[in-house]
Amino acid sequence: MILDLFAGPGGWSRALGVLGVRDVGLEWDEWACKTRVAAGQLTIRTDVAMYPTWPFLGRTHGLIASPPCQAWSMAGKRLGLLDQPLVHTAVEDLAVGRDTRERLLAACRDERSLLAAEPMRYLHALNTVGEPEWVAMEEVPDVLPLWKQYAAVLRGWGFSVWYGILNAADFGVPQTRRRAILIASRVRTAQPPTPTHAQVAEPDSLFGPGRARWVSMAEALGWGATDRPVPTVCAGGGPGGGPEPFPSGSRKSLSDARERGTWMPRPDGVLLRSRREGAGWKARHGARQNRAADAPAPTFTADAHRWSWSLRSNNQANATVRPLSEPAGTLFFGHRANECTWVAEPASPPTADTDTDTPVVPEPIRITAREAGLLQTFPADYPWAGNKGQQFSQIGNAVPPLLAGHLLAPHLGVTVNPDDFTLAA
Q: Quick check: 359 and 350 in contact, CB under 8 A?
């Protein structure tokens, strides 16, 4: 079997399924387990730190581990950074079969920190019977020193090991997600997969084809060409002044329709509630005069100003904002400040035929779980379980399946076909 510790909603499992094999996932979170079951993945709901290792001895071909990263991540309180010496001690002890976890856990500032040492408990037990054949682990970049420690132990057991930082965008993921990766094998030289994409497309050479340009959000979401301007939002409610499909001013109706899949804010048809801008708009974009609050809303022709859409990674002042023509920044959720939203800016300064015209500005609108999943390279119909918060938490913590596929394929003796990781439906 392939054993998947901290399996989450199935990023590694999805990749393995595409490559033609299955794993057994150990996961504690109720909603991640429900997502896995709905996706047809083998799952044991358990605390990885409490589960015995003996059921896996003599039958484990590969081991995968993505320990929870909240305590180590830039998105959290980062108390795990203060606990790093304790985690290193736990790994050192577990590598020789000495279990000091209870004592070390009592000294940890974040109880989740020590979970990053759990894979060593399984690895030590499996190594007594000459298993596993290979190992793949993933975490946030700050955990790289811990992977260095794991690498030293695994090399002492006869593994070839590589560890380092990889950018998911270099492997076709529409997201510049950087992760600390460890790859180890008893039967082949461990090395990172060859990148398939680059920030700027490369020309073919005598040595082979050049790498393709990073995949943009627009491509991943199936929103069409990114260089085509967004149709004007008109007073009638829809592009071109057509009938309004939802009650006037109803953002909830728009959001509900988005979740049902009956409407998406794609570049070839944007329908969003709008607002009038005041002096701030005038200062930035040179509007001639602000419209009175009781004046009728203006109608813009097809030649009026148009919008470019970007994804804002959170609502903090230093949030990453990326246009649709680029990959997203790292998606992380689980805190009220980590709310990803689509925001609009004028592609060019507005024009006005009279002193009474006022630009109509589409309001920011939250990203949906379906969209976030697509940007993680999960399929559009992936069965996320739970409420929106629970779904977003799963998505943000998951390994992008396409990246996982590139990491796992060499161990399985297969080649990744990106077309098999179908995104937008």
A: yes
Residues 6+ apart with CB under 8 A from 280: none
Question: Radius of gyration (Cα) for the chain, nearest Å?
Answer: 25
Residue 197 DSSP SS3 = strand
* Sign of the alpha-carbon torsion through 412, 413, 418, 419: negative
User: What's 110's DSSP letter?
Assistant: S
DSSP SS3 for 45:
strand
**Domain at 2-204+397-420, CATH from 3.30.930.10, 2.30.33.40, 3.40.50.150, 3.40.630.30:** 3.40.50.150
Q: Which of 41, 142, 116, 75 has the alpha carbon at shortest distance from 397?
A: 75
Q: Three-state SS for 82?
A: helix
- Determine the Cα–Cα distance for residues 140 and 297; give it in Å rounded to an integer: 48
Q: What is the pLDDT of residues 106-161, one digit of tens each?
A: 999 888 889 999 999 999 999 999 999 999 999 999 899 999 999 999 999 999 99
**Is the model's pLDDT at 292 over the cut of 80?**
no
Which strand (E) or helix (H) includes residue 179? Answer: strand 178-185
Spatial distance between the Cα atoms of 12 and 27, rounded to a whole number of angstroms: 13
- Residue 325, amino acid: S
**Which segment, 271-285, 288-302, 317-331, 399-413, is predicted with the most confidence on average?**
399-413
Q: Which of 384, 301, 312 is nearest to 344 (CA)?
A: 312
The one catalytic residue among 33, 69, 108, 234: 69
The single-letter code of the amino acid at 331 is L
Mark whether 234 is an active-site residue: no
- State percent of the chain over pLDDT 70: 72
Reported pTM: 0.80
**Per-residue pLDDT tens over the stretch 338-365:** 678 888 877 666 555 444 555 566 788 8
Q: Which of 254, 286, 290, 301 is nearest to 273 (CA)?
A: 254
Residue type, 157: W
| Number of helices (H), then strands (E), in the chain | 13, 15
Mean pLDDT of the chain: 80
- What are the structural domain ranges in the chain? 2-204+397-420, 216-326+332-375
Q: Please check whether residue 329 is in contact with residue 320, taking contact to mean a CB–CB distance below 8 angstroms.
A: yes
Give the CA count within 13 Å in the CB-facing half-sphere of 84: 13
Alpha carbons 253 and 220: distance in angstroms, whole number: 25
Measured CA to CA, the distance from residue 27 to residue 41 in angstroms comes to 12
